[in-house]
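Database export, one record per block. Field names are fixed; values are copied verbatim from the stored entry.
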Amino acid sequence: APGHCDVLAQGDFINLNFEGQDMSGQRICITDHILFYINHLNGSENNPAIISNCGGIGRITDNNKAIWLRNSRYVRITGTGHSGHPIGLKLIGAHNTIDATDGSSDITIDHVDVSSSANGGTGSGISMRTYPNCVDQQLRYTRDQFTQYNTVVRDSYIHDTYNEGLYIGTSHHHFEQGYAPLDCNNDG
């Protein structure tokens, strides 16, 4: 039900890691925060994990990102958590206000107000893309290792962004390793 929270994060700087947990249908509530980092948030195809306002307008304002979603799948970010506010999430950031990356796929964003802060100088309103990178000296997220599916942004107000309003999918897709060569094991 709207207003119900399974996870109510407290404090300004939120860093949540749900590795190994099935968060299908679970609701993570946003109230007033400075930034929201979320790792390994995984719902299921027919029952996504939900990030939502609860009990009023949820606000995140930061000089970097507002929501950074990493290595997550089947997630809905929605501002429909309170019937009195048709666009119930107000997110202001300076570098990719909402950023879904590092293997995130099957993400829906709706009923959010997204803009860049006055201090901003780079980035997009909403970025949903994964570039290849190195982790533990291993190359990951190359074209043959990762595909981004079912990316949906709807019923939202995206305005006053420094660069693109929406940056969905990667650029430089014609390069196997993305926009720059990567040397993960330092062997040249």
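Remark 1: The two ends are 54 Å apart (CA to CA).
Remark 2: The chain has a mean pLDDT of 87.
End of record.
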